[in-house]
Amino acid sequence: MAQNVSKVVLAFSGGLDTSVILKWLKETYGCEVVTFTADLGQGEELEPARRKAELMGVRPEHIFIDDLREEFVRDYVFPMMRANALYEGLYLLGTSIARPLIAKRQIEIARQVGADAVSHGATGKGNDQVRFELGYYALAPDIKVIAPWREWDLTSRTKLIEYAEAHQIPVPRDKRGEAPFSTDANLLHTSSEGKVLEDPWQEVPDYVYSRTDHLEAAPDQADYITIDFERGDAVAVDGEGLSPAALLAKLNDLGRTHAIGRLDLVENRFVGMKSRGMYETPGGTILHAAHRAIEGITLDRGAAHLKDELMPRYAELIYNGFWFSPEREMLQAAIDHSQQKVSGTVRLKLYKGGAHIVGRKSPNSLYSEKVVTFEDDQGAYDQRDAEGFIKLNALRLRLLARREAR
Amino acid sequence: MAQNVSKVVLAFSGGLDTSVILKWLKETYGCEVVTFTADLGQGEELEPARRKAELMGVRPEHIFIDDLREEFVRDYVFPMMRANALYEGLYLLGTSIARPLIAKRQIEIARQVGADAVSHGATGKGNDQVRFELGYYALAPDIKVIAPWREWDLTSRTKLIEYAEAHQIPVPRDKRGEAPFSTDANLLHTSSEGKVLEDPWQEVPDYVYSRTDHLEAAPDQADYITIDFERGDAVAVDGEGLSPAALLAKLNDLGRTHAIGRLDLVENRFVGMKSRGMYETPGGTILHAAHRAIEGITLDRGAAHLKDELMPRYAELIYNGFWFSPEREMLQAAIDHSQQKVSGTVRLKLYKGGAHIVGRKSPNSLYSEKVVTFEDDQGAYDQRDAEGFIKLNALRLRLLARREAR
Amino acid sequence: MAQNVSKVVLAFSGGLDTSVILKWLKETYGCEVVTFTADLGQGEELEPARRKAELMGVRPEHIFIDDLREEFVRDYVFPMMRANALYEGLYLLGTSIARPLIAKRQIEIARQVGADAVSHGATGKGNDQVRFELGYYALAPDIKVIAPWREWDLTSRTKLIEYAEAHQIPVPRDKRGEAPFSTDANLLHTSSEGKVLEDPWQEVPDYVYSRTDHLEAAPDQADYITIDFERGDAVAVDGEGLSPAALLAKLNDLGRTHAIGRLDLVENRFVGMKSRGMYETPGGTILHAAHRAIEGITLDRGAAHLKDELMPRYAELIYNGFWFSPEREMLQAAIDHSQQKVSGTVRLKLYKGGAHIVGRKSPNSLYSEKVVTFEDDQGAYDQRDAEGFIKLNALRLRLLARREAR
Amino acid sequence: MAQNVSKVVLAFSGGLDTSVILKWLKETYGCEVVTFTADLGQGEELEPARRKAELMGVRPEHIFIDDLREEFVRDYVFPMMRANALYEGLYLLGTSIARPLIAKRQIEIARQVGADAVSHGATGKGNDQVRFELGYYALAPDIKVIAPWREWDLTSRTKLIEYAEAHQIPVPRDKRGEAPFSTDANLLHTSSEGKVLEDPWQEVPDYVYSRTDHLEAAPDQADYITIDFERGDAVAVDGEGLSPAALLAKLNDLGRTHAIGRLDLVENRFVGMKSRGMYETPGGTILHAAHRAIEGITLDRGAAHLKDELMPRYAELIYNGFWFSPEREMLQAAIDHSQQKVSGTVRLKLYKGGAHIVGRKSPNSLYSEKVVTFEDDQGAYDQRDAEGFIKLNALRLRLLARREAR
């Protein structure tokens, strides 16, 4: 297991776990450690991570702290939103979609500093290890990958804290006990799982929610908003043009207020087990609903139904960590091709956990009042065509029925 | 067009339109008319339809009034719910699923009374004409089908009312003017479309809703309920065993109170145009969420993902009127096969338009706390297996990346 | 039916049927007729069509004769070959793929000459009417379409010939009787159907074949050939670079000699009936086999399997006439994305009706002898990874089995 | 790795490799070994395996020799044939389909003799280890699995032979050198791979073929045969009713004579690499073609196209070893549902490597000469229906085109 490693790029949050990993990598591999801390909108200060790394002896030129929020939303979240991606019908893939970007940046840094290995703090039971490592291998096939949680013997929190104390790693008071659940956060969502959430019959306790206000505490007055789309991507809220990250942040604020985007789910992990998670995706939930609505008037049925049939596969690929795969890219090519005219404005009512579509309009609308109207349509549609349409669609069914009757 | 017809079975609501059709059929075809009125839970008295038919000269033995509510929910709604069917990601298919049952019963009656034709009151622009007629042809390939709206020249409401008055058909006062929208209702849903709904940018007016109380008027206190499932079908609410129709009615009551199941949608009709509809599916929306949740713990990933991939096709078949088709039956066979262990209990919180899953349990649960736990799992899962799993999943991606680097 | 038409572009072969149509259009609609005759490699002289049109009074500037062979193969046949498209598992879509090009050119000519209508000679039972007309409407939504076979009363060959004679249209001697079958030909294939082929239990008579030599008469000596591919398209045969049409013609010659590409098929038409056809696709059959083989070493599994799953839908779209549809274009975008590295050389043995792959090589090969070898692979693959791979793939199956055992 | 094992059921061919494994299991685990040798139609005597086992000290009651040919064809090959399964468009899955049956029988024996482990002789790079072990785990989730090729250090043939000689295991003369390729055989096919086949550009040498006569040596005279089907399964050849295994054997004889069913393929293994194999599936190739042909006249288009779309996934599941999975069973349920009327007779011409369909008939035929005929069909089909059919199919395309023109 202990391969020969000289320099490793570690995805480093600055928290207790990745601090222990930092130390453990040095001890175990005798290698130099390069830390990489990304701002994906998780809502934490990054400078403490820099100081922590410095304190632990990482050379300043080996400390990388990047604000990836715009890239994250523009190149990862938005392409996925174009697909209306939902894993197992419900999950907006907030964690899954962040991993490939982190992996990509780690590999870029590894190339820049001449590192021969990368490392992450994901456990051996989860999906994230797969997502990180498939990303690494897809971009740098010969990189060495170190997954401490699969290698070391710090198999309990007690051991981890003992290791930290033995190595002068400060242990915050609130980390001394077992955390009641674990979380992952970025601009798209916060996920929570484990411990108090492990019994899927028990309701998620109130204190687990961090990104949305409580349903009952949400305002009694609805908010009405509009979202403008251009070629499948949201570009403005209430008429105000915003960058991708700013737009998602804006929708997150709105979603937080109205308690939108909570999801209590038992899902199927790629590694073969079921797990129960709680997700909060306030802005993403609004965006998802709005994107479907703008597609409703601008996307042809053939394109829309093909998208719907491809979507579960596409979502599964992202969930399983195959963002950097030929088949995800093929599906993306198909999806993106469909979005050329997906422009216009959607109006939503936000209220007590719900993002309700109440209107949509577009210069590219395919909806034709003239054709669909109950009133006289002045020849836009000849009702007698329907007879032939039905007759030929029925022909094979009639031949079947005649066989039955034979 | 005017084929030789001697006896026709008409799907007869007793309303103005089908009354005019009844008369028109007699006038146009000189044929005997048999009326069929079904109780699908639309919430209207049926006896007035009988009296209306009698008044219009239909022979008593030619008036058929059937309570099909249990058959409707048990043999149509529930099988569809097993599939988690949503048309275009959102629509629970409330109108679509009722049509095949009506068609089937019409054909049975036609056989019983020796009729050679069937007729319905669906217009020439909609999906329902297709659903009715594909049903007729699939069950009786040589039946004659009369679709008055595609044949006659009563192309405006004024002409229709003139015809009614000329033929002593009573015109209710509220039918004199143009209805502001048109509706279809059954135990699963009420749909509304046309007129005031035709501009998809305009919010659906309050007065259009009939099956759900207004969002803002819903109770400030949530209700918690449980639904029990057996082999994929709901069998009890709050522990009380109920027949299919009674159960759906119970959920409808709960959904009405909490304003659950409203949907404002621009959808793609089978006949090629987009239309804007408003749907209220209170109980069905609760049921759909609950069924996904019980599957969450009882259905294997392979089965669940296959179901998700097949679902859009399945929903499209029902929407398009292909209930009685070999391919719908094939998909149903696959879906039903998956439901053998889908038993257990789901707990939901109903609040202000939302049906939120808060718990699920099952004697057949595949969720294993022992495997998934963050704690020591005592060997239930070997984290080192993950390395090999990732390595082999990555192999093809690495070979690709090496090719890129060549 | 008889709309107001002033100028119509007719797809005109110069044969008896389209000559009658030419006359009938003038008579029926009192309109000017523009003829369009395309060389798609059907192997017939086109100049006689010009003379025929002139004789029938078409103005010289209204006679269009175009050699579309290169465009046909490059922009229609090759994109379809990239998809490995087979309708119902077997049919290489030789007729289907030609129709959209003819439709497109007719619309271009209509725009050029200011015509308000187009017309074709396809019958009312076949797929071709659908393919032509969907093409017309997709490119010129308000064009008038005249389908004489659905409109006129020349419902038997006798009547057709009577009409021809009454209007001074020369009737070739061999057209006086009923043809024993009907054919369609282009550079990709010849199809035959009808009459002597209508009993699907009867073997196709020898005289029906026109594009391939008889199986038993094929050489006793095999030919070995190579085909070079670049980005998914064939570019050379036996090392000789050829244009798309020249390459397909070359493969047709080879296929003819070796009796390759015959297919006796009962297929399902879009209009709802089954028909029996005989197809000869000599070069296309070779190309299809070769393309799969070059993909075998250059295409990643994920891409290849996704293509295989999408293919039936793609083929169905082409068969049904939806070439110019958003969903066909979406699928094409996905397929084309996959072909970037599909370059290399395939070697085939042609013998007695078979096109057997015997070798393939590529600078982009993903096949790695080093990885796959039975010999010592020097660490290219760690067999122990397989254990973890299997264990995690098995995990959900084990959880299922434990449930069964409960 | 060396788990505590007391009794292991070994899939034992009696050849050198599994004899070495037998010994190695005893030596390494100190356990009792139970041998299981199956007759799947591989064409080898089984009694020598018994003697070999006895000689190596296996107790007589621990030697299991079963003729599984009928079960193999009836319960594995035939269900797969109903699906028209082809992996990667070409491979008839001859090896893949045998593995689950062997695994199932091993588990049955393990239960019978009270064994706690099973073992097989598949290598660590191939698919078969996966297929065996997924089968084991799906049927006995807590069974111990021993895969010697992944565990031991006999990593070259030289070491294997040294081990054999050191342990008094007889080494046949022809096994002393390296075999030029490795094979697997059963009633459905023989596969060959490795060594001389590892360069995919080199033609497969003549001496590799064992199940089919050379193409050029095949008779100059074609054979015509008929195959009768009942509910999707072949039941008779040339009118003679045969059991599943006897029928496949009969077709194998015919296929051998006419050199039918050879396939040179580069395929994608589940473990992530490409490999080149040569397959001979003489009877299976004939059966596959014939099954498609009988479906051609008896299966509705909707069912047929759904089958075609599901097939690649179904084939992939079998290839990857997921025979005993809920999703394979779901697909099987759908497929089997479609086969109820797939009965009738197919006529084929066998000639020089080709199995050409020349006729098909069925009491359940959906092919209607009356409907499809070019002649007057006496009202069986109204050509004017086609206009409405096309118009409504075109409607969305026209709306799209009008948008383009805006």
Task: Describe this entry's structure for a reader.
4 copies of one chain form a homotetramer. With 406 residues, chain A is an alpha/beta fold. Among the domains of chain A are: 7-69 and 94-175, HUPs (Rossmann fold, 3-Layer(aba) Sandwich), CATH 3.40.50.620; 182-298 and 341-361, Argininosuccinate synthetase, chain A, domain 2 (Alpha-Beta Complex). Helix content of chain A is 41%, strand content 19%. In chain A, 59% of the residues are buried. The model of chain A has no long low-confidence stretch (mean pLDDT 95). Chains in contact: A-B, A-C, A-D, B-C, B-D, C-D. Chains A and B meet through helix 5, strand 11, strand 12, helix 9 and helix 10 of A and helix 5, strand 11, strand 12, helix 9 and helix 10 of B.
